[in-house]
């Protein structure tokens, strides 16, 4: 371990113009809100529908949403605070924690996406053995391996940084702490560290991306000529997965595959991966997935029906109270109100259908 003299780091990636900072604050806040609410919505929708919850694909999707929600909380809240308060510093411990959790969630996400590709491959190319191969216990074991893999990956990155000495420079050319920018500030030759980072993060991204492309390539070849309803459904699911894979892996390949390059493209790719991608994933999976949209419609329909019923009960109680005050028999009024509520319910049901 090092004997570091640096106690805090300063971010240089944030703009110094207040109008630009305000614009970025609104944009980042919107992405952060969509990321949290969207991923939480996916988890709630899947758990609200037992049929979806029993499906391995949606079980994996809930884990991906949890990872995205966690990833959006690593650097974005502090970025929002810095944009609003014009602060640009982070403690050494905070920087190391940010670096650790960034790679923990990022590494786990890549492995979960690879597992989702494997799930689609078995479902489409080996449908007879799908229920046996992807049973719940096996899925849990595979998911645990993904989370453990992310933990090992992030611990490796943290050890690579903590063994470096930091004795003076503390300005990071980025919006948050990451391995490349922090390692550049070390008071020693970091060539070996660069190679190890590329071997860990860069090759992990490249290897997973290639495996994913091969898996979906085999799936597309299998689906060729079978574009009936089930084939179109499988193709739509795979296209959603490929969209998310591209949004995640392409920025990571830009950032981690080249040894410690310093360019505006790297900063944009880093910001896109940590800020924008977690917000786009739930949009892609909900808008392009018919089962998710149907389940969401049913859930919202139930909420509306419960609200209508609650209003109806209040109307009936109010009518009975008024009738009693006027000395009228409330039965006829009650029956009329019940008919109105039933009619409202029929209209709501027909609109949902």
Automatic annotation (TrEMBL):
<keyword id="KW-0297">G-protein coupled receptor</keyword>
<keyword id="KW-1003">Cell membrane</keyword>
<keyword id="KW-0807">Transducer</keyword>
<protein>
    <recommendedName>
        <fullName>Olfactory receptor</fullName>
    </recommendedName>
</protein>
<dbReference type="InterPro" id="IPR000725">
    <property type="entry name" value="Olfact_rcpt"/>
</dbReference>
<feature type="transmembrane region" description="Helical">
    <location>
        <begin position="20"/>
        <end position="46"/>
    </location>
</feature>
<feature type="transmembrane region" description="Helical">
    <location>
        <begin position="268"/>
        <end position="287"/>
    </location>
</feature>
<keyword id="KW-0812">Transmembrane</keyword>
<feature type="transmembrane region" description="Helical">
    <location>
        <begin position="203"/>
        <end position="223"/>
    </location>
</feature>
<feature type="transmembrane region" description="Helical">
    <location>
        <begin position="235"/>
        <end position="256"/>
    </location>
</feature>
<dbReference type="InterPro" id="IPR050427">
    <property type="entry name" value="Olfactory_Receptors"/>
</dbReference>
<feature type="domain" description="G-protein coupled receptors family 1 profile">
    <location>
        <begin position="38"/>
        <end position="285"/>
    </location>
</feature>
<dbReference type="InterPro" id="IPR017452">
    <property type="entry name" value="GPCR_Rhodpsn_7TM"/>
</dbReference>
<comment type="similarity">
    <text>Belongs to the G-protein coupled receptor 1 family.</text>
</comment>
<feature type="transmembrane region" description="Helical">
    <location>
        <begin position="58"/>
        <end position="80"/>
    </location>
</feature>
<keyword id="KW-0472">Membrane</keyword>
<feature type="transmembrane region" description="Helical">
    <location>
        <begin position="299"/>
        <end position="324"/>
    </location>
</feature>
<feature type="transmembrane region" description="Helical">
    <location>
        <begin position="100"/>
        <end position="118"/>
    </location>
</feature>
<dbReference type="InterPro" id="IPR000276">
    <property type="entry name" value="GPCR_Rhodpsn"/>
</dbReference>
<keyword id="KW-0552">Olfaction</keyword>
<keyword id="KW-0675">Receptor</keyword>
<dbReference type="Pfam" id="PF13853">
    <property type="entry name" value="7tm_4"/>
</dbReference>
<keyword id="KW-1133">Transmembrane helix</keyword>
<keyword id="KW-0716">Sensory transduction</keyword>
<feature type="transmembrane region" description="Helical">
    <location>
        <begin position="139"/>
        <end position="162"/>
    </location>
</feature>
